[in-house]
């Protein structure tokens, strides 16, 4: 593979990765807006998110195989070296920089959405524990090493 072929293949790949990462950002924003509302929509978003993540992993695997066949290391520096070797006008480097920023945005949005979900789950667990008269106990075992049943108190339903 010559420099021009490498450049063209990397350009196609990076364009696709940028498009998929951008779609993932939009999906994560939608997920964040949907979190407090609809469970069915969240399931659909989760399915779409998994699909986009798989596509991005496939691109990463393909990119790694490409740079390996060209004799470059398969780490980040090897990829940068490959870009420097075949990129005439810093077009690929620019696209890779944008892609890196998109990945950071995806990570931030995903962590934010996860925090919202964890917080909502805690509230639901607390409400259920009050309703059923159970004490919330994050520990699986008590101080003597015995398994905790987690059922302490009386259920409101029984009261």
Helix content, binned percent: over 70%
Mean pLDDT: 81
Total count of domains = 1
Low-confidence stretches: 151-157
| Class per helix and strand makeup | mainly alpha
Radius of gyration: 24 Å
Number of helices: 4
The largest β sheet comes out as:
none
CATH topology: the name is: Methane Monooxygenase Hydroxylase, Chain G, domain 1
- Write the CATH homologous superfamily: FlgN-like
User: Which band does the percent of strand residues land in?
Assistant: under 5%
Q: State the shape.
A: elongated
CATH class: Mainly Alpha
* SSE arrangement, N to C: HHHH
In short:
With 159 residues, the protein is mainly α. Helices cover 73% and strands 0% of the residues. The protein has helices at residues 3-34, 39-69, 76-86, 91-132.
Write structural notes for this entry.
- This protein is an all-alpha fold and 159 residues long.
- The protein has four helices and no strands.
Q: Helices and strands in order, then pairings?
A:
Blueprint: H1 3-34, H2 39-69, H3 76-86, H4 91-132
Question: Keywords, please?
Answer:
159 residues; mainly alpha; Methane Monooxygenase Hydroxylase, Chain G, domain 1; 4 helices; elongated; disordered C terminus
């Amino acid at each position: 593979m010559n420099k021009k072929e490498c450049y063209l293949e990397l350009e196609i790949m990076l364009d696709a990765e940028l498009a998929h990462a951008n779609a993932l950002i939009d999906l994560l924003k939608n997920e964040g807006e949907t979190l407090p509302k609809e469970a069915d929509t969240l399931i659909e978003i989760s399915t779409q998110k998994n699909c986009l993540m798989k596509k991005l992993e496939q691109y990463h695997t393909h990119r790694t195989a490409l740079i390996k066949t060209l004799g470059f290391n398969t780490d980040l520096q090897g990829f940068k070296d490959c870009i420097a070797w075949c990129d005439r006008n810093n077009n690929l480097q620019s696209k890779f920089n944008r892609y890196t920023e998109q990945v950071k945005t995806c990570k931030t949005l995903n962590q934010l959405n996860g925090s919202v979900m964890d917080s909502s789950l805690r509230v639901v667990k607390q409400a259920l524990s009050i309703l059923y008269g159970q004490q919330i106990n994050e520990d699986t075992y008590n101080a003597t090493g015995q398994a905790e049943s987690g059922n302490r108190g009386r259920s409101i339903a029984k009261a």
